[in-house]
Amino acid sequence: MPVATIRFTQAKRNFARVAARAKRGDTVFLRHRADDFQLVYQAPSAAVLRRPEGFFRLSARDLAEINGARTDETA
Fold this sequence. Notes:
Order of helices and strands: EHHEEH
Distance between the termini: 72 Å
Number of strands: 3
Strand content: 15-25%
Largest sheet: 3 strands, mixed
Structural class: alpha+beta
Helix content: 25-40%
Strand order of the largest sheet: 1-2-3
């Protein structure tokens, strides 16, 4: 695994290439002034599930209950 130390300014201009190196498994260090940071690729975790449209939409009865109005069940 090759090791690379790249300055932040260079990494910003060529970030796709720098990220590709990290993804390949190369050890990539980013240097900013006197600080060094290691860029590490992390494989995507399980897919994020999307909730169906209207999942959080409240019904008229729920809104009435939240607003303190009486419903048939509380009458």
